[in-house]
Design a protein that fits this description.
single chain; 171 residues; mainly alpha
């Protein structure tokens, strides 16, 4: 990938450090269309590495916030369900910046489009009461992307299963 980046850039814009290379790689990965890329079989491994870097996995230095935001933006495009936990952990962590939490929840919503687990839905539900409005909005957006069925939506949003009596038209 470094070789391809070097070929496509003029001398002024070539990455100077490994951090610059990491950002350029994240941007290149995020620009790929997983359905059309000749590297489609390698994108899940790249997404795994991006998720680990965004989370700052044990034994690694946590990258600067700008890098983590770039990694999460790329996950929005190429992430798979395997990266859900990393996005969920960042999004639910009040010690993270609001900007980073929102980026993680946006990536989560993109990854979970039309799918999701009850655990993830519960995490997102709990974030609907977060003190930070952008986090609440991103959690709501991610929940909407999950496209929960009526019963699952009631259970997630209200903490109880929908019953026939509650859904029957009033007479």
């Amino acid at each position: 990938l470094e070789e391809q980046i070097d070929k496509g850039l003029d001398e002024k814009s070539k990455p100077k450090t490994w951090e610059d290379t990491a950002l350029a790689a994240a941007a290149a990965l995020g620009a790929m269309d997983p359905a059309r890329s000749v590297f489609a079989d390698r994108l899940p491994q790249a997404a795994k590495v991006l998720a680990e870097a965004a989370r700052g996995s044990a034994g690694q230095m946590t990258p600067p916030p700008a890098h983590r935001l770039a990694y999460l933006a790329s996950l929005s495009r190429i992430g798979t369900p395997a990266e859900v936990l990393a996005c969920q952990q960042i999004g639910a962590n009040p010690a993270e910046s609001v900007e980073l939490r929102v980026a993680a929840l946006r990536a989560l919503g993109s990854i979970l489009e039309n799918t999701g687990t009850p655990e993830t839905a519960q995490t997102l539900r709990s974030l609907l009461t977060d003190p930070a409005e952008p986090v609440r909005e991103a959690a709501g957006w991610a929940l909407g992307r999950m496209k929960l069925s009526g019963t699952d939506a009631c259970e997630t949003l209200f903490g109880k299963k929908e019953t026939a009596a509650e859904t029957a038209p009033a007479q």
